[in-house]
Design brief:
Strand content: 5-15%
Shape: globular
Radius of gyration: 18 Å
Helix content: 55-70%
Number of strands: 2
Structural class: mainly alpha
Largest sheet: 2 strands, antiparallel
CATH topology of one domain: Arc Repressor Mutant, subunit A
CATH class of one domain: Mainly Alpha
């Protein structure tokens, strides 16, 4: 008989430990650009969709609530990377857009994914597979929560 209540058998712990390890890889790389990991995630979304999403839309993509996202945006705005503006169509909505400096930062950070991938020791095929599994787990759990 196996004991399922052993730390080394817990998927949640493996994910937690891997997440912490990966964040440790990102930290010095992002420090070179004056960013934290959550700020980097915000910029990734904005670089992909430079159409001034609302704070709510940004939070939905990042799975962050406005209480967590607002301070991130405030710091990115203070750094001159993003600008927040009230929507002309609906003043209750705040849109987030990149500044020229924020757009230019994308070019300087082009090697980040490669550096992180190298640090994992995984092949490209393994990384794609891992990404697919983790995405499926996340989507399945979120779907179940919504039911």
């Amino acid at each position: 008989m196996t004991d399922d209540l052993v730390l080394r058998r817990q998927v949640c712990f493996a994910l937690y430990a891997a997440s912490r390890a990966l964040t440790d890889v990102y930290r010095p790389i992002l420090d070179e650009h004056g960013l934290t990991y959550p700020q980097y995630l915000v910029l990734l979304v904005l670089w992909e969709h430079d159409d001034a999403p609302t704070v709510s839309e940004l939070g939905g993509q990042l799975r962050l609530d406005s209480g967590t996202l607002s301070p991130l945006l405030k710091r990115l705005e203070a750094a001159g990377l993003v600008v927040r503006t009230r929507s002309a169509a609906d003043e209750r909505r705040v849109e987030v857009g990149l500044t020229d400096r924020g757009r230019a930062l994308r070019e300087r950070m082009g090697d980040v994914p490669r550096r992180v991938a190298t640090a994992t020791g995984l092949t490209e095929t393994e990384l794609v597979f891992l990404h697919g599994i983790l995405t499926r787990v996340t989507e399945t759990i979120h779907r179940q929560k919504e039911q």
